[in-house]
């Protein structure tokens, strides 16, 4: 008698049918705007959700001196969101793009990694660092690639 093999459903896999959630890091630099534009086009073509993540750095030195850092960083985040809405609105077929804007406080690498995990991202898109010091200390993009949790696209 032939023994029947029981089929066990495959475990959940990210990205097997194309990306469903794409996280793009936006800090206002030219390379982060290019990365967000690239991610928006990819999300539109793949019918994926684009999660634009802006990380407000903790300005410890300014806070220690009594500067109103929370108001400054909140204003910057609101301005970036307005600019993102405007830029995405000018895209061809912008109405078919599903997207959301998230603002968090903290270390950019840690926050982007936590956001990507929390949103169950299939891909992360960031701009290449424009700071010379990152050649020594390591950029956010390099750290995300080394984490190896998601495919990471670094846009120059």
UniProtKB/TrEMBL annotation:
Coiled coil: none annotated. Pfam families: Usp. SUPFAM superfamilies: Adenine nucleotide alpha hydrolases-like. CDD domains: USP-like. Residues 20-156 form the UspA domain. Belongs to the universal stress protein A family. This is Universal stress protein.
